[in-house]
Amino acid sequence: MLQSAKADSVGHIPSGLFIVAVSDPSTKSIDGYLASWIQQISFNPLMISLAIKPGRPAYDLIKSGKNFAINIVGEHDKTYLKHFWKGYDPQTNPFQEIPHEFGENGGVLIKGAKSSIECRLVSSVSPGDHEVIFAEVLASYSMNEESKPMVHIRKSGASY
């Protein structure tokens, strides 16, 4: 079977849309990226997995052990999503015009998100062109309880 044909149905696997955000208090830098491959993987301890392509914004900070936040995009507010969808200059603070605050563990929490989860890197593995991060949940915040999480379905599993 052709690779493109295999990828068609893989793209039909639904996922959420998330902004993964991390800060480095020592340099006052904040970075983040749009993610869709995030999943709960353990109850005890409470853990999630996420895929990130090396070289993406936030990769080095997460890999260095900085706590990070997963901001769950809700259907109620997508205004900040466009910023991450189209990309941005890595020399500028992507959160300059996005209302946010810091969680009790230093995670960058987007005020317009449905909810946010603060995490800490536990381990990672590189099975392909993306690295899978395994992270423990440190805290969670529900900002817009009534909103439904956005669901994303791609046209093909061969590209974002």
Description of the structure:
There is one protein chain. β4 and β5 form a beta hairpin. The longest helix is centred in the N-terminal third of the chain and has 8 residues, at 3-10. This protein is globular. It has helices at 3-10, 59-63, 81-86, and strands spanning 15-16, 18-24, 29-35, 38-42, 47-52, 68-72, 100-102, 108-110, 115-125, 131-142, 151-152. It has 160 residues and is mostly beta strands. Helix content is 12%, strand content 39%.
Question: TL;DR?
Answer:
With 160 residues, the chain is mostly beta strands. The chain has helices at 3-10, 59-63, 81-86; strands spanning 15-16, 18-24, 29-35, 38-42, 47-52, 68-72, 100-102, 108-110, 115-125, 131-142, 151-152.
CATH superfamily placement: Electron Transport, Fmn-binding Protein, Chain A
* Total of domains: 1
Strand order in space, largest sheet: 3-2-6-9-10-5-4
What is the total tally of β strands? 11
Q: Label the overall shape.
A: globular
- Taken as a percent bin, the fraction of beta residues is 35-45%
N/C terminus separation: 21 Å
What structural class do the secondary elements suggest? mainly beta
Identify the CATH architecture.
Roll
Rounded radius of gyration (Å): 15 Å
Number of helices: 3
Overview features:
single chain, seven-stranded antiparallel sheet, 3 helices, 11 strands, mainly beta, Pnp Oxidase, Chain A, 160 residues, 12% helix
